[in-house]
Design goal:
alpha/beta, TIM Barrel, Arc Repressor Mutant, subunit A, 16 helices, globular, binds iron/sulfur cluster
């Protein structure tokens, strides 16, 4: 692992969807009328607010997430990108991703997004099985999902789509078939998430159960086997890519680098002289909008991370990655030594169990450790 390049990302949160999915705990809302002009003004205000202190960092990625950003007007996207270009120096290979849903996709919209500056699309497909799409409360069917991918592939050089697995009645054979369909359509990046039932969701209220742990593990193993064979190994627990197709924006998070969060509920990290601050915006869209319009930002709190909190989050993120966390990178981020930040007895015990390795100055979760990362981290960092 060579020295990692500096990176700085900007995340823009669009909090609206055409319908709320029953498993979703993201900050997403259904609202009849949205004044996109007001939202644009608020986004621009918040960008300017942060540019006053972070404009010296070249931007390497912009990510429009949600919600369903494919419901944004292309002109709004273009105006946001123009302002980012005015306020910051952007890298030559700036990655600009938007999330899209198949039901809000059509050829013209994708063309307009490309024209507005988007150069990578991430489509919320979730399944290639109509019954499962219904269970997940999605507005599209499998044919629309395939069409959206094919249409997008003609317009965007870089493209990803998501699938959800470990649904209650899913069999290994079902999942193999879905992965087979995905591998026929993929352009080089897939995000594959296990269903989790989160508090506050309709599934949680209705006591829907995800697949049990054993089935979940079996489906995870199948995922690794088929995707490895196809040349899209996991570069992160749930994300698979061909070489150079990795999401540069998400790598910013997993590599513990700085980013801005713009929009309701968005969060960011800014570091000055090795002191990292955690920044959170108000989650409620109306509240954020009003504050960003009147005060220039919908920021709710800004908290310096202690050395231990910062260590924990860098390790927590770094161990999600197949590349792991190098002592060199850790030093670049914190100015401190990784080995002496760790409890050697605990580290040794996890190495002996085959869950983790710390070789050639790189701390890495072994495949067995990545599958039970929460337990590994709880032991390593407690
Ligand atoms: S489309 Fe995405 S963000 Fe919107 S409710 Fe469904 S899962 Fe959540």
């Amino acid at each position: 692992m060579g020295k990692l390049k500096p990176a700085f990302g900007i995340y823009i949160h669009w909090p609206f969807c055409a319908k709320k999915c029953p498993y979703c705990d993201f900050n997403s809302h259904v609202q009849d009328s949205i004044d996109q002009g007001q939202w644009l003004e608020a986004y621009l205000n918040e960008l300017r607010y942060y540019a006053s202190e972070a404009s010296d960092r070249p931007v390497t990625s912009v990510f429009f997430g949600g919600g369903t950003p494919s419901l944004m007007k292309p002109q709004v996207i273009e105006d946001i990108l123009t302002e980012i270009g005015r306020l910051w120096r952007c890298s030559d290979d700036l990655e600009i991703t938007a999330e899209a849903n198949p039901s809000s996709s059509e050829s013209q919209l994708f063309q307009d997004f490309r024209q507005a500056g988007i150069n990578r699309l991430s489509i919320g497909v979730q399944s290639f099985n109509d019954q499962k799409l219904q269970f997940l409360g999605r507005l599209h069917d499998a044919a629309e999902a395939s069409n959206a991918i094919e249409t997008a592939a003609n317009i965007f050089d870089r493209l990803s789509f998501d699938l959800i697995y470990a649904l209650p009645d899913q069999t290994p054979e079902d999942w193999r078939q879905e992965l087979g369909a995905a591998l026929k359509l993929t352009q080089g990046h897939l995000s594959l998430y296990q269903l989790t039932i989160e508090p506050g969701t309709a599934f949680h209220k209705d006591r829907v159960a995800a697949a049990d742990e054993d089935l979940g593990s079996e489906l995870y193993e199948i995922t690794q086997e088929l995707l490895d064979q196809a040349g899209l190994p996991a570069y992160e627990i749930s994300n698979h890519a061909k070489k150079d197709q990795e999401s540069r924006h998400n790598l910013v998070y997993w590599r513990g680098q700085d980013y801005l969060g713009i929009g309701p509920g968005a969060h960011g990290r800014l570091t000055h002289n090795f002191q990292t601050e955690m920044i959170h915006n108000y989650r409620e869209p109306g509240k954020w909008l009003e504050l960003a319009q009147t005060e220039g930002t919908g920021q709710q709190k800004r908290t310096p991370l202690s050395a231990e909190e910062r260590r924990d989050e860098i390790i927590l993120m770094g161990l999600r990655l197949a590349e792991g966390l190098s002592a060199d990178h850790y030093h670049t981020l914190t100015g401190t030594d990784l080995a002496s930040s760790l409890d050697q007895n605990r580290l040794q015990a996890l190495e002996n169990e085959g869950f983790i390795s710390f070789q050639d100055n790189i701390l890495k979760a072994a495949p067995a450790g990545r599958q039970r990362l929460n337990a590994v981290l709880a032991h390593l960092l407690s």
